TrEMBL record:
Keywords: NAD, Oxidoreductase. This is Alanine dehydrogenase. It comes from the Bacteria. The keyword rRNA-binding does not apply. It comes from Gillisia hiemivivida. The lineage of its organism: Bacteria, Pseudomonadati, Bacteroidota, Flavobacteriia, Flavobacteriales.
């Protein structure tokens, strides 16, 4: 028998998401009778404690008898229970300075940490994440910002809507002007954003058509790394080559910036990759983009206008390309920016359900099939108070030496 617990989220601002809904848990225990689940009491979770109890699960303040603890966001150091297996987004794999002490505490407390970001296939492709919901909410927020800025329509904020269905109903009420939208990426975020564009029946066009033609309807173009970067030799190789040698490429994004009104950023930006546009480029008379919905949300470097992340409470700001400073998003000279970095939190019920489906499909079986596909092995960052081999590159970071 493996005893799992759904732990309470303790980060501020409160995160209402959870790994499994009560219904999903019922499905799991039916399929895997050797799994049991206890729920740590929480007054902020999107599903109430009483809903788990009604589904037949024990809710308690004490989950210390459980072996595998499942959370979403970082667990505060003071709340870590030693000698457990934890699953959560630790935000340490890129050596994020603000979580160095957390990883150090995880090692000191002999915790086995499994991070959702490294639950991957053998080819390294991620299996689990909230990306789709970030893309869905990010694209919705993009049109909400457009409506507010240009005074052409008003849309409610997603976090006051109950679910995705209501979000789609709100989109049905708007009419877009004849804009050109460029959407970057090829993963879950980009595809989530694409779902919204397709729901709005915006026409998708190919790169050449997008760059060269005018349209009498709104259109979008979905572009990937070799569309917006070009190898220094002038001949592009493969996406894989770009991922491993980004420094051999130059940005080719300006050709899109010169014809697009809106940029929805849904790509993954790897270290050393060419930047999308600089302040200087944003200042050039040819630069046309006036709204950036930056779901990728890498601050400061790749997209000059993303000078900070924004919040669900206050999602939109303006960027003045002349000064590089923040201004009111309604100012004529401004590029409007939406850069909320916790977008899936705006849709906690759907995001939790979707996440639970993926976790059930890709991870739960691994606990009961001796991990034949190596899913758990690859995702295990720490064991016996040490970093796993795959994560030994984090040693200097944990030791405070970089
Ligand atoms: N704002 C938010 O709330 C929010 C939420 C979730 C994700 N995100 C961010 O959105 C971005 C995309 O996330 P996702 O869920 O779509 O990721 P994903 O893992 O689903 O997709 C990433 C894509 O990028 C490609 N890729 C892999 N390595 C790359 C590299 N070195 N350079 C360029 N591309 C590479 C992959 O092949 C894949 O197609 C990430 O930066 C993520 O942090 C933001």
């Amino acid at each position: 028998m493996i005893k799992f617990a759904l732990i309470k989220e303790r980060k501020t601002p409160p995160d209402r998401r959870v790994v499994f809904s009560p219904k999903k848990l019922q499905e799991i225990v039916q399929k895997f009778p050797e799994a049991s689940f206890k729920i740590e009491a929480s007054d902020i979770r999107i599903f109430k404690d009483s809903e788990y109890e009604e589904a037949g699960f024990e809710v308690s303040q004490d989950i210390s008898d459980c072996e595998v603890l499942l959370g979403v966001k970082e667990v505060p150091i003071a709340s870590l229970i030693p000698n457990k297996k934890y699953f959560f987004f630790s935000h340490t794999i890129k050596k994020q300075p603000y979580n160095r002490e957390l990883l150090e505490a995880i090692l000191k407390n002999n915790i086995d940490l499994y991070d959702y970001e490294v639950i991957v296939k053998t080819n390294g492709r991620r299996l689990i994440g909230f990306g789709r919901y970030a893309g869905l909410v990010g694209a919705y927020n993009c049109f909400r910002a457009l409506g507010l800025r240009d005074g052409i329509f008003e849309m409610p904020k997603v976090d006051i809507l109950p679910d995705l269905k209501s979000v789609l109903l709100e989109l049905d009420k708007i009419k877009l002007p004849n804009i050109k939208i460029v959407l970057t990426g090829s993963g879950k975020v980009a595809h989530g954003a694409k779902e919204i564009l397709d729901h709005l029946k915006i026409k998708q066009v190919g790169v050449e058509e997008y760059l060269n033609n005018d349209f009498n309807e709104p259109v979008y173009c979905l572009i990937d790394v070799l569309d917006y970067n070009v190898h220094k030799s002038g001949t592009n190789i493969t996406n894989k080559h770009f991922y491993s040698h980004p420094e051999e490429y130059n940005s080719n994004f300006m050709r899109f910036a010169e014809v697009s009104h809106v940029f929805i950023a849904g790509h993954f930006y790897g270290d050393g990759a060419p930047i999308f546009f600089t302040q200087e480029q944003a200042n050039s008379p040819k630069f046309k983009i006036k709204l950036v919905a930056d779901v990728s949300c890498d601050i400061g470097i790749p997209i000059a206008s993303t000078i900070r992340s924004s919040t669900i409470a206050d999602p939109i700001y303006g960027y003045d390309p002349k000064t590089g400073e923040e201004v009111d998003f309604r100012e004529k000279s401004a590029i409007t920016v939406m850069a909320v970095d916790n977008l899936p939190c705006e849709l906690p019920k759907d995001a939790s359900k979707g996440f639970g489906d993926m976790f059930m499909k890709h991870v739960i079986p691994a606990f009961f099939n001796l991990d034949i596909d190596g899913i758990l092995e690859r995702a295990k960052m720490t064991e016996n108070g040490k970093l796993a081999e795959r994560f030994s590159y984090l040693q200097n970071y944990v030791d405070g030496k970089e």
